[in-house]
Amino acid sequence: MEAIPPAPPRILIVDDDDSVRDVISVLLAEEGYNCVVANGAEMALDVAGEAETPLVISDMKMPGKDGLWLLDNLRERLPDTSVIMLTGYGDTESAVDCLRRGAVDYLLKPPKLTDLIRAIERALAKRRIELARKRYQKKLERKVRDRTAELRTAFKDIANTYQNTLLALVAALDAREHETSDHSQRVVSYTSAIANIMGIQGKELDEIGRGALLHDIGKIGVPDAVLLKPGKLTPDEWMEMRKHPDIGFQMIQNIPFLSTPAQIVLSHQERWDGAGYPRNLQKHEIHVGARIFAVADTLDAMTSDRPYRKGTTFANAIQEIKRCANTQFDPEVVRAFLDIGEEGLVRIKLEMAERKLKPLEAEARAQEAEAELERLTEEDDLELTPVPSAPPLSGNKVA
To answer: What is the total count of domains within the chain?
Structure first.
């Protein structure tokens, strides 16, 4: 079966001189072009809009609206239509101006048929390349949008699984200290609630939350005999216990997304009055996340049951924290803490009791997210065939 030849391109010829318009139309029709005509710029604009018109050949000077007016309106309304301007001798400035305003070429009147055919071929070839470039650009933009959305989802999943991995690690630490089950996660909730009251949002809030979550990670390096000792610690044992902020800091400081949480881990035992450890920092020398954590940690410690004592009420814990403002705690943090109120703090604890981490599920989600990220980064969908450059124009020089 023979292929159907493509339809000849539609060319609009615009000239107020009937004889010039008709001669050009007949000559181009004999060359196989589909020609339509218009006797003025306004009529030409209407005719060009009736059907796809790849090329307009227009006289520069016409009564009423001239060729430059037509060119400007075609560029605005039908930007994919190419325009060749016809100009008379001695009209050099207008010819150059039409090129600046978007015409693809110009010819002197009356044009030679060979010059006209070459100009048409150049104009149509340039138009095909420009259309191909636009299609390529749209396809590329669509690919980029799709890829960006996929990567954003994948990175969000990775961030969630990182968080779940940290939660699993901390759950293991809490399980090691039998009396503090879920302690770290509750402290994160209290810390985030206080930080929100203080106007801390976004990335800073996330980093403070991670610091609170990992505050006791350094206890990995504390011997069980010290960490789990039921009685009072000896001075030497106490020295071992006091090493855990620095141990935790050393463990995570070189992990890029944990660099700020590492500072909170290192400072979480400091006090507002400078009587804490390990660096005896005071007031605003202490990271704000560590200052917030100190209040949250004390609340949870006081209201949680231990083998050797029963947890106190939230009302008692609130009064004790209020009493220690300006000594153990940052007074600004204490004010934000008091704004949450007893009812709000109790609600946070109850909500935490309902949420339990599922380590196997978290691990599966991590593997799925990492596999998806690898697939996205290895795909070659964006390697599209390059579009060739447009050929240089060699329009006729004005004599």
So the answer is: 2
Q: What is the DSSP letter of 306?
A: B
Weakest-pLDDT range from 41-50, 189-198, 367-376: 367-376
Query: Is residue 338 domain-shared with residue 222, that is, in the same domain?
Result: yes
Query: Which pLDDT score, from 0 to 100, does residue 92 have?
Result: 67
Among 144, 129, 84, 72, which Cα is nearest to 111's? 84
Q: Is 56 in a helix, a strand, or coil?
A: strand
How many angstroms separate the CA atoms of 262 and 65, rounded?
73
Tokens 């949008």 belong to residue: 145
Q: How far from chain centre, in Å, is Cα 206?
A: 18
Q: Is the peptide bond before 278 cis (omega within 30 degrees of 0)?
A: yes
Q: What is the pLDDT of residues 284-336, one digit of tens each?
A: 999 999 999 999 999 998 998 776 678 899 999 999 999 999 999 999 999 99
Nearest to 13 by CA among 32, 2, 43: 43
Q: Which strands make up the sheet holding 10-14, listed edge to edge? A: 34-38, 10-14, 55-59, 82-87, 105-108
Residue 391's pLDDT is what?
47
Has residue 50 got a pLDDT over 60? Answer: yes
Q: Is residue 189 in a domain?
A: yes
Decide: 54 and 120 in contact? Cβ < 8 Å: no
Could you read off the pLDDT of 208-254 as tens digits, one per residue? Answer: 998 998 888 888 888 888 877 777 888 888 998 999 999 989 988 88
